[in-house]
């Protein structure tokens, strides 16, 4: 099968969050199964060019129709850790991708509308006719719209689209100018409720809604989050649209690339280990304490790795720090804030706790340090308000770090409470789960985990081993995606 991924990220060359990891990991899995996979990405000026091998001209003069004229583009091809990637570089005064950032510009909707148009134009002009076009998130929501309404009449009538939504919160909102820029034009037609009109703003077009309406299949990144999006508030207004298109909507759990996140092969950690040599993990714990100047005492290390924002339950992250310290544990945090107020809050906490030998707050992101923390911590808190899938808990399980999670989205699909999960036998339970968003719920789960570490160390070791036995690689998700691709290709 010939599959083209169209996305705004692909780790490690373009990575702002989990989307990049998923695009790369899934592409690798599909390719390993014998399928032809190519990726189309924006050519940002700030991406990691050191992760691209053999970058060369692939299509020098691509003229993309735009606002009744054209924008001249170059398309470059290179290999990102074995994956064939095409990078679209527009030569325009708009400087769509020469901003020193991936997201965050006032005209993001126009930037990615152009990218979607250019990706289709490149497929058309280069005579690439994939069986499946796999699009990701709002940035590519217009691809299936333009494919169905325009490009199928120019020789691309057999391509099928799978549209994966990684986060419903960001949907891509635009006005009529998007229609005129891309050549879709017909305002009354696209502003109908059953097409692109936003469900709550009659004067706005919704990119993600367009992706849902026009794709052959739509999925989000865990089965439970698919249910939440339809029936809860995490669909951010798209619940009715998902209900209308429920026959082509589902959830597929993300995977983790065990070639990267695996203590048996991890070159970022001083001591490799496996399920059979779990005692060797203690050497990484010692290394982390030395690096972060934590005191070397017999205490568990509890960690948090991730963004500091409302989605991630930042108020509970803050509470977890002090509860861990009061309960005789050490705490390590690695993450950066997405809002200035949260950033100031945690810098204040960092300064206040600076001389405490049992805590370290690293208010940035460091890939190497992240690997060492996973390989050193005893427990990982993931108190998200909502979490479509979550990679933190999956990586933690592989590294023998017991996850303490809130029971939402992909977290509740992958972590099974040691004490209370009636749906899993005791030997299949792998962590701790709480459900409310208040501090008492978090404390209850942390208390049980810390108590087990201190009072029943052998039982805690069994819990670690049960978590490491789970397979959250791309093997199962790869099979699920291929089943969908086969289904919509028929």
Which features does this protein show?
nine-stranded mixed beta sheet, alpha/beta, 490 residues, 17 helices, six-stranded parallel beta sheet, 2 domains, Rossmann fold, 19% strand
Describe this structure in words.
This protein has a nine-stranded mixed beta sheet with strand order 3-4-5-2-1-6-7-10-11, sandwiched between helices. Strands 14-13-12-15-16-17 form a six-stranded parallel beta sheet, with helices on both faces. A two-stranded antiparallel sheet has the order 8-9. The chain is 37% helix and 19% strand. It is of the alpha/beta class and 490 residues long. The protein has helices at 18-32, 108-125, 142-149, 176-182, 187-190, 207-214, 223-231, 239-244, 281-292, 314-326, 340-352, 367-376, 392-398, 409-414, 439-455, 457-468, 475-489; strands at 2-6, 36-42, 53-66, 69-80, 83-91, 132-136, 160-165, 173-174, 205-206, 217-220, 249-251, 301-305, 330-334, 359-362, 379-382, 402-406, 432-434. The protein folds into two domains: 2-255 and 475-489, Rossmann fold; 275-468, Rossmann fold.
């Amino acid at each position: 099968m010939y599959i083209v991924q169209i996305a705004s990220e692909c780790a490690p060359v373009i990575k702002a969050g989990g989307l990049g990891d998923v695009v790369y990991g899934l592409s690798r899995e599909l390719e390993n199964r014998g399928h032809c996979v190519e990726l189309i990405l924006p050519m940002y000026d700030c991406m990691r060019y050191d992760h691209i091998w053999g970058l060369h001209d692939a299509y020098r003069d691509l003229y993309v129709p735009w606002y009744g004229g054209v924008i001249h583009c170059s398309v470059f091809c290179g290999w990102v850790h074995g994956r064939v990637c095409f990078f679209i570089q527009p030569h325009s005064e708009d400087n769509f991708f020469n901003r020193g950032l991936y997201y965050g510009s006032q005209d993001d909707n126009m930037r990615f509308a152009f990218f979607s148009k250019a990706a289709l134009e490149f497929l058309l002009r280069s005579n690439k006719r994939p069986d499946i076009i796999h699009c990701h998130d709002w940035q590519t929501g217009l691809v299936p719209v333009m494919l169905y309404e325009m490009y199928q009449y120019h020789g691309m009538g057999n391509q099928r689209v799978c549209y994966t939504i990684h986060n419903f919160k960001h949907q891509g909102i635009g006005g009529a100018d998007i229609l005129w820029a891309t050549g879709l034009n017909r305002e009354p037609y696209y502003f109908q409720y059953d097409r692109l009109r936003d469900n709550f703003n009659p004067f706005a077009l919704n990119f993600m809604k367009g992706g849902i309406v026009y794709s052959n299949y739509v999925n989000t990144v865990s089965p439970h989050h698919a249910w939440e999006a339809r029936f809860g508030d995490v669909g951010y207004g798209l619940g009715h649209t998902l209900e209308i298109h429920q026959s082509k909507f589902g959830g597929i759990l993300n995977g983790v690339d065990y070639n990267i996140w695996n203590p048996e092969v991890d070159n970022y950690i001083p001591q490799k280990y496996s399920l059979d040599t779990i005692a060797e993990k203690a050497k990484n714990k010692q290394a982390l304490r030395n690096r972060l100047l934590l005191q070397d005492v017999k205490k568990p290390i509890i960690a948090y790795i991730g963004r500091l924002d409302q989605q991630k339950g930042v108020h509970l992250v803050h509470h977890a720090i002090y509860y861990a310290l009061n309960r005789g544990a050490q705490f390590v945090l690695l993450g950066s804030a997405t809002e200035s107020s949260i950033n100031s809050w945690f810098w204040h906490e960092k300064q206040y706790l600076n001389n405490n030998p049992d805590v370290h707050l690293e208010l940035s992101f460091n890939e190497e340090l992240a690997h060492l923390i996973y390989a050193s911590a005893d427990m990982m808190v993931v108190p998200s308000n909502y979490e479509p899938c979550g990679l933190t808990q999956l990586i933690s399980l592989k590294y023998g770090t017991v996850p303490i999670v809130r029971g939402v989205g992909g977290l509740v699909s992958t972590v099974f409470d040691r004490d209370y999960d009636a749906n899993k036998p005791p030997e299949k339970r792998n962590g701790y789960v709480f459900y409310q968003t208040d501090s008492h719920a978090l404390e209850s789960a942390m208390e049980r985990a810390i108590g087990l570490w201190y009072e029943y160390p052998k039982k805690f070791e069994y819990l670690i081993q049960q978590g490491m036995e789970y397979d959250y690689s791309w093997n199962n998700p790869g099979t699920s995606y291929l089943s969908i691709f086969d289904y919509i290709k028929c």
